[in-house]
Amino acid sequence: MTDLATSKRTAAPRIGEDTPRPDGVPKVAGTFAFSSDLYHDRMLWGGTLRSPHPSARIRSVDISAAVAVTGVHAVLTNEDVPGSLTYGLEHRDQPVLAADVVRYEGEPVAIVAADNPEAVRMAIDAIAVDYEPLDPLVDPDLAERADPIHPDGNLVRRINLIHGDQDVRGEVQVEGTYEVGMQDQAFLGPESGMAVPAEDGGIDLYVATQWLHSDRDQVADCLGLDPARVRLTLSGVGGAFGAREDLSLHVHLCMLALHTRRPVKMVYSREESFHGHVHRHPARMWFRHHADRDGTIVRVESRLVLDGGAYASSSGAVIANATCFAAGPYRVPSAHIDGAVVRTNNPPCGAMRGFGAVQTCYAHEAQMDRLADALGMDPVELRLHNALAPGDELLTGQTITGTAPVAEVIRTCADHPSGASMAVDPMELPGGAGRTADPEHVVRGEAFALGFKNLLFSEGFDDFSEASCHLADGVATITSACAEVGQGFVTLAQQITCEVLGVDDVVLLPASTDGIGSAGSTSASRQTWMSGGAIQEACGQVRVQLLERLAAEHGVDADDLVVADGRVVSMAGGLEIDLVEATAEPIEASVVFRHAPTLPLDENGQGDAHVSFAFSAHRAIVDVDVELGLVKVVELTTSQDVGRVLNPLQTIGQLEGGAAQGVGLAVMEEVLVEGGRIRNASFTDYLVPTALDMPPVEIAALIEQAESGAPFGAKGIGEPPSISSTAAVAAAIRNATGLDLPRVPVRPTDIVFPEGAA
Q1: Which domain does 349 fall in, by range?
Q2: Do 705 and 624 fall within a single domain?
Q3: Which of 28, 66, 406, 672 has the fewest Cβ atoms nearer than 10 Å?
Q4: Are 520 and 445 contained in the same domain?
Q5: What residues contact residue 202 under an 8 Å CB cut-off, 6+ apart?
Q6: Which has the closest alpha carbon to 568: 560, 583, 580, 578?
Q7: Cβ proximity of 381 and 295 under 8 Å
Q8: Are residues 509 and 648 in the same domain?
Q9: pTM, entire model
């Protein structure tokens, strides 16, 4: 089997220094071992039969012909699930394999293990399923009135947020209806993994995931095994962005491996991946903003409907975010936000970068521009006038006690000089090719958007991360189950360790469920704070033990000893010892790190539900060919509240990557679903930004104000860039065209044939 240990001893820079990723070059060079590269000399191949219908009854499943295919070792159905028949991230509502009904196109019905992929394909084709197609529920607005498609009902969660005096009305009112389409995480590596049966009757699962221990617990439950006998090891991850929080092939692999007593590998095709993981929730949103004549916002009203698809996944948390942050990073003394997320027969939706806040940011920023226009006020000045600050109260009634440099984020981004000039070369125009591009049809637009989101898990969730540090012979070995999915933990862990212990050699062991507790999910911009905090505390305890031991041995005061540059030195003089010598006898510590407690929202959506917040702004400049409806994003400028920059190189990468996903949602990315069926399940038809589509991302400012309780004062930085970038690009297109454009992504037809045009 492929060696999964990618870590090695490296001399790592300290906090605040550029630290290249150790896996960066291998990934670019094509030598990195992803989960799809796993190999075992006795392995079988696995595959999945999926429903072609978004809604249907299963009358019968006949596997006899499939079992007879040469090379087939197992064909399993719902009847073969050894434990719990359902799983789920927040609600155990999703069948391992469909039994009596299917609720979305692509729902797994049967699984196969065979000697080779061709035999797998032939066996899948040979399975005879008698379906009775049903009329699918595909309109989320009808879900609450429709017959239930699931035993738990169609409504997953409703939050009726009521804040402040409900009789307040503003002198100026603006309203609008907005829509966000379904976005795919579009990661590089589709779902893949390998399950290997163990001699103790358990299973070893090697898989790309965001949350090892959550996966383990769900898998163990479905297999009917003690969690200790289900061991997960993180394999090479080709991107995640939320889609790997949910199970996909995990239980299927384990069932096949345990049944055949052989290792089983499974790799999804790109088309299968589109059906096999959750997507960003489509949203329909109505807003009404009230303000006084001086631009002071006095009230916000909103109705939000998110489409969760067939199963709950993380929909409850997504609608909570959408509702809590519906008004944006502004002072709003009165609000009524009605947020609901429902089940339909559309593809399941769940976590994606910035979840919930991306959808509402697009809407509330469009509203801020409407309000500025109605008031005859500069849009940036309107935002500055209403910007949140420490001590202000959120829609939930929670007071901001941490850093909130919202005004600084606005000013630095808005005031940053632009380097964009009108293109002369036709190749630089929208369309970008000779006779297609015509400068006479191109208009320029510029706009600004501001967004924010919570960091870490919320609403009373017991959020924690465990880590251990072992220091021996000058080498620090770190153990954590934190999933490295591209966010940079593999470098951050080394930086923190070197900073706290003064060592140059750090070994980060492969992430697994064996020998360490949960690190939580690599999501919600939480791992720098949570797993970084756990490592900082574990290393801190090791440092204290080391200094106390040396102080006792040498008769000096421990408070007088410092560790730096591979040595332990007495500030008063008289003692200097090499760290290798000082740690000949190993020292270790394990800690469980938790953030400040949070509370669930009450019946009115009020409560101290969140730990901390991060703020970002984008200014977008676009060129639009109004004859063809083509858009070219010319420039993106951003400022972001980051707490403290721990790795500048990594920070820039996160800001650029988030902006790219935001541009994608603004002008090209959408999973097209018609009648519950995905129509563009490939990167030929599902369009993602390339290097030709992305403009330079100009970082106007990284606002560094250390956040209390976070390691070295750092905030998570991964999600905010994807939140305000979409809103800024869409607003810039409005500015260029004068059209309302109430939906993203903005299609060429929306520009050329706007609603109501002849």
Answers
A1: 283-458+601-752
A2: yes
A3: 28
A4: no
A5: 225, 226, 228, 229, 230, 231
A6: 578
A7: yes
A8: no
A9: 0.95
